[in-house]
Structure formats: C-alpha cells, structure tokens
Specification:
The structure is a homodimer. Chain A is built from 13 helices and 14 strands. Chain A is of the alpha/beta class. The first copy, chain A, starts with a strand and ends with a helix. Chains A and B meet through helix 3, helix 4 and helix 5 of A and helix 3, helix 4 and helix 5 of B.
C-alpha cells in the first residue's frame, strides 16, 4: 500500500503518473482540506475536486482546475446580485468561479453532508462516480481552515488582518504579502488515513506547497509523529525548482515566512518526517546542501510536462522508499 | 395601498395586470412560502421567484416558471451523482429542475440568509435587483412547510404518509391522492405584512390555489381575524373556472379534501374573510349560489390570456373593494 500526501494541481499530476506505475487499488491519497470553503451555501473542496477531476481525465488542461468544456452561466447571472447587494454584504461573490457542470459536485457534497455522511464517505462516493479506482481520503472529516495573516496594509485588508485561504489565493491572486499561516479548528485526522500513514509500505509527499497544502495535513495530531517514526520510507518531491514554484505562491510564501525559497528550504521543512527529497536536475548543485539536512537526495526530472515524466518521477519516489 | 395575497403563476399574472392599473409603489404582495424548500443546500422560494420573474418580464412564458432562455447544464451534470448515490440517499435530486441562471437567485438568497438577513429583506433585495417597484413580502420570515398526507398507497408512499409540497407538486406531478394538507412550523406573519392587511385600502386574494397557496398565509396567527374584520374591502378571484383549475391541482385537491370543486366551493372557503368573489363568465349560473354564502358575486372574464385581461380583472377587483 502506498499513501500520498496531496494538495491540488501538482499532487494531481503526480498521482496521475503514480497510477501508471502502480495499480490504483494500492494507492490512497490523503488530501488537504484546509482550503475548503462554503460559498452560496455550498460545501466546496478545491483540492479534492482537482485531484478527482484530474485523475478522471476531466480537468481543464489549460486552467489546471475545474472541468473541461465548462460553462459559466450561473456565475454570469450572479453579477446581477453582486452589483445590487447591500454594501455590508458579501453574498453573491463572483471572485470564486464555479462552472455549471462543477456545481453538481458541490450540490452532491453539500446534500450528502446534510444527510449526515462524513466528508470521507462523500469523497469516496464522488471518486466512484468519476470511475476512480484509487482511494481518496480527506485529511479530516472536521473543519480546518487555513488562515493567512496579512504582512502589510493592502487591498485585502490591514496589516495583521486574517483572511481565508481562498480569499488569499483566488480573490487576491496570492499577490499580497503574508506574515503567518495558521490552521484553525480542532480537527482530528481521518482515522483510516492516520492508520494508513503508519501501515503503508511507502509514504510519498507530492510536489505540493509545503506551507499551505502539506502543512495543514501535518498540523493534525499524530501525523508528524507517525511519519517521523518511519521517515526512511517517506519520500517527498520538491515543489520548488530553481528557487521558484511552478505554480502558485510557494516561493514567495517560503520567503515571507522565513524559509529559503530553495530545495534546501524545502529539505529543512521536511527533514524531521521524511528520509528522501527528490529535487530537479536544475538544482543538482544543491544536492549536498540537502544531504546536509540529514536527508537522502535524488536528482531527476521533476517537471511533469507529460504523464510519462510524472510516471518516471513516481517510480523514482517509490524506489526511494524501498 | 393595496395588499394582494399571492401564490405562484396565477397570482403573478394577476399582479402583472394590477400593475397596469395602479402605480406599483402602492402595491404590496404577501406571498406564500409554504412551498419553500432546501435542495442541494440552497434555499428555494418557488412562489416568490415566480412572482418576481413574471413581473420582471423574465419568466419563461411556456413553462410559467423559471427564466426564459434558460439552460440546464448543472442539472444535467447532477445525473452522474443521482445514478451513483447510496440507495438510502436522497442527494442529487433531479426531479426539481433548477436552471443555471435561476441558480444565481438561490445562491444569493442562501448566502444572505446565512449572513443573518431575514427572508423579507432578501426578497426585497431580489425584487430590487430585478427592477421591481412593487413590494414583495414573504408571508413569514420563519419556516412553514406545507405537508400533504397521502390518501392511499401510491408511488409517493403508503396511505397516511406525509410528503412535502414540492414532492407532491413536482416530483409526483400532483397526481397522487391527498387526504389532508397541513402547515408545519411555529411561524409568525411578517410584521409589516400583517400591519398592511389591517391598514390597506383594499385586500385582493389572487386566483391562486385556496388550499395550498392562500391557506398557508391564512394559517398564520392574526391573518384571518384581520381579514374577517374588514371583509367588505376584501375581494377574491376564483381560481376554479367551470369546475376545473386552469393550472395545478386545485380542483382535485378541493374534491379530495371534501370541498365542492366549483366557485361555490371557493365561496365557502373564503366567505369568512372576504366580501366579494369574482367568478368567470362560464360560471354565471352559479352567481346566486355564491351569494347564498353571504358574498357579493361579480361575473367577468377571469382567464388571463393577456395582460389586458389581467388588468381589466384587477380593476374589477379593486372597484369591488371601494
């Protein structure tokens, strides 16, 4: 059994490669839900949906999120209310795009949760509805909210104000400076997810943002302890290549929060729980600095331009844990 | 000031005519919300929306509900989950059609209620967003549910089972026999609606279903007492013409629940609270039987084939209350 800690786009592409190397029924991905939000009364789990849609071959390849051949009619109609709502109201937000086909997933999740199903149950049902054979597990069945503290006065608010991850990431295009990230909510890790982290033959940490995709999972009681005890069979892939993130704000967040925005910075974050770090060929000159953090370092092609590159990367990661 | 008790389609057409006779700012419509439901986590108020969309000139003229030029992409995508949900689950219902543009209204209502706004506030905001100048007031800010008891074993359940109004009306196409209608919930009438019923110059009861559109409003404490005290300036239009309902189940419900499905049956229901009943030319022979119930009876054209007919009907009703 293989467990994969996952965020959104990078993790989804990595999992797609892993599924070319290993039968899906041997793979369980534990997915970040700190980005989850409620909009229009609908329960939205962006990372779970990105992974599901990607592995189902239904993701929009240009955007990297949402469904291909999507339409935006409901969102278009919402602008009527966005322009007439009372000044103090935040109803009818139009900054978070929800495609018409994608809405069905949020409708289903919301209704099932209202029926008393756990998020883990609903996630498994949605994965099955899309024909997936691997197991997707939300990191928790409870609510954990990733909260960003603003470093300075900006369009998003005053210095020190706290905003939700989706406000940071989508509404403000992760272009405002952060001084802190925290995870709010007294949540427990999903029980079978936690058991799997202990019992799996391999644990892989996908090339996701260490601070806002993997850190929420690590914030749950037990996760870091379990991984630390088995760190030799844990392998992470650096999402930082040549000092920058391929997608998203990992590089600037690392700098703003006092880390080096390099594979060495990633190594320092993961060293306590992870025996091997895979870095890109572009960072080969930093391999010994990674090893100085007490990790094995593997240098290979990590830029997942194709499923084949993803598959080769996944095989390298798996081999490293054996 | 004119107050109009209203259900859905018939009331909407009547109000459209009334607005041709009277400046909209003098009209307040108190609208049934016993049909309201929650689907996919969204707060849906079918009668309020039918009235709003009709008066905004945006209703689909064929269906009589929902928006014209509507698309159904979200509903189409929902079928994936409807066919894969667990057997015991009612999530992803596809029997209640929600158009993509219409969804924006439910998104806004749901979000505003979650922000703490009352349904009356949200209803006013939605009416304003659609450019309406009359006042729309939900009958209550609380939850009242119109519940139908099944008369016999049928596709909807066992005899004696209770189903929601929308299950009765939409899911089962109001084709199952009812033995009772009740209104569940400890609701108060919307305060300004109740005041208006006392102070308005005229109260009109639109040609809506007496048992499931007007009765929920009448079930609220104070409404019938206020109307009884001023019954000479209250005028109703019969929704029953020649023994049948122009739309919906009013005729069969009246029979099933022990009323005559005629204008005389309507007169018996409204006589305690209403001084005048307007009936269609087709029922002219029943005018004296209506008058025998202690009401004035006016015979005219009540079939609202055009806004002009609706306007003439509204003028007749208004004149009757003066």
């Amino acid at each position: 059994m293989i467990a994969v800690l996952a965020g959104g786009v990078g993790a989804a592409r990595f999992l797609r490669g892993l599924m070319l190397e290993v039968e899906p029924q041997y793979i369980t991905s534990i997915v970040n839900t700190g980005d989850d939000t409620v909009l229009h009364g609908l329960c939205i789990s962006p990372d779970l949906d990105t992974v599901t849609y990607t592995l189902a071959g239904a993701i929009d390849p240009e955007r990297g999120w949402g469904l291909e051949n999507e339409t935006w009619i409901a969102m278009g109609a919402l602008s009527r209310y966005a322009t007439t709502r009372p000044l103090h109201s935040h109803a009818a937000p139009t900054w978070f795009n929800l495609g018409d086909k994608d809405l069905a997933t949020h409708f289903y999740r919301t209704a099932r949760l209202a029926e008393g199903a756990t998020l883990a149950q609903v996630t498994a049902e949605i994965a099955q509805a899309w024909g997936l054979n691997l197991q997707l597990v939300p990191m928790t069945n409870n609510s954990v909210q990733t909260v960003i503290t603003l470093a300075e006065d900006c369009e998003a608010g005053k210095a020190g104000a706290e905003i939700s991850f989706q406000e940071y990431f989508v509404k403000h295009h992760h272009s405002v400076a952060a001084s802190a990230v925290k995870f709010v909510g007294s949540a427990e890790a999903t029980p079978n997810g936690l058991e799997l982290l202990a019992s799996a033959d391999s644990v892989l940490i996908a090339p996701s943002n260490p601070l806002v995709s993997i850190a929420p999972i690590r914030s749950l009681a037990g996760v870091d302890n379990i991984l630390a005890q088995r760190r030799d069979s844990v392998c992470a892939i650096s999402p930082i290549v040549n000092g920058t993130a391929l997608k998203g704000p990992a590089d600037r967040l690392m700098t703003e929060l006092g880390h080096e925005s390099t594979v060495v910075g990633v190594a320092k974050i993961y060293a306590p729980i992870c025996g091997t770090l895979i870095i890109d060929n572009a960072d080969a000159h930093l391999a010994s600095a990674v090893e100085a953090q007490g990790m094995r370092c593997i240098v290979t092609d990590t830029i997942m331009k194709s499923p084949q590159v993803s598959a080769a990367l996944a095989k390298t990661a798996l081999d490293a844990t054996r």
